[in-house]
Amino acid sequence: MNDLEKELFDWTKEIAEFHFPRWEELPDFDLYMDQVLNLIDNYLYVFKEDKQSKVITASMVNNYVKLDLIPAPVKKRYNKKHLAYLIAISVLKQVLTISEVKEGILYQASVSGIREAYDLFCTEQEDALSAIASHIELDKNHPLPLLPNNTEIEILVVRTSCIAVASKITTQKVLALVKKNKTDKSQIEKNKKKKNSEGK
Fold it and tell me: CB–CB of 175/11 below 8 Å?
């Protein structure tokens, strides 16, 4: 197994075991903007392209309020409901437009309520990440189905969007690793040439 494959398989294990905080695991107290941003960044670390990138920014949150995607904060404080919305939006916006995210959230909340819709989203996203990971892992004889046959129409939107997110972040990770591997090989070649020219 080469370095690229090893890094990919290590990351695959990470996404297969990734856990989204359920409604009951979200803080029961109000938070200020900086606390919200840090918390979401920590919760969604597997969705970051690199360690320096941010999953969400203050301007994004303010735009989501203006677009009525999330309720306005009360006295500049955000609660559990805000966090749930922001986690779902931060993940889904990677593959859906903001208007599609809003429509999907409103639909799912009308079917099952906000708490249940959020927990369903968490479960579906974890399942999608695990399914994608099982298709990459070498030791899996029977990868998990990406779209189980028993998918009910009420959850089809959330399930397929979660599969799309899992596919997208996997594609981005593979491309980043390929680029890194190519850069590493190029650097090794340069060092060899430099060593050879110095030895003459």
Answer: no
- DSSP H/E element including 141: none
Tell me, rounded to whole angstroms, the distance of Cα 49 from its chain centroid.
Answer: 10
101 and 115 in contact (C-beta within 8 Å)?
no
Cα–Cα dist 88/83, whole Å: 9
Q: Which residues of 126-164 are buried (b: 16+ CB within 10 A; e: fewer)?
A: bbbbbbbbbebeeeeeeeeebeeeeeeeebebbbbbbbe
Q: Which helix (H) or strand (E) holds 78?
A: none
Tokens linked to 161: 């969007």
Which helix (H) or strand (E) segment holds residue 157: the answer is helix 153-199
- Give the residue among 124, 195, 131 at the shortest CA–CA distance from 157: 124
Which pair of structure tokens corresponds to residue 84? 């749930």
Contact yes or no for 90/47 (Cβ under 8 A): yes
Query: What global pTM score does this model have?
Result: 0.83
Q: For residue range 40-95, what is the model confidence (pLDDT) as tens digits?
A: 999 999 988 777 889 999 999 999 999 999 999 999 999 999 999 999 999 999 99
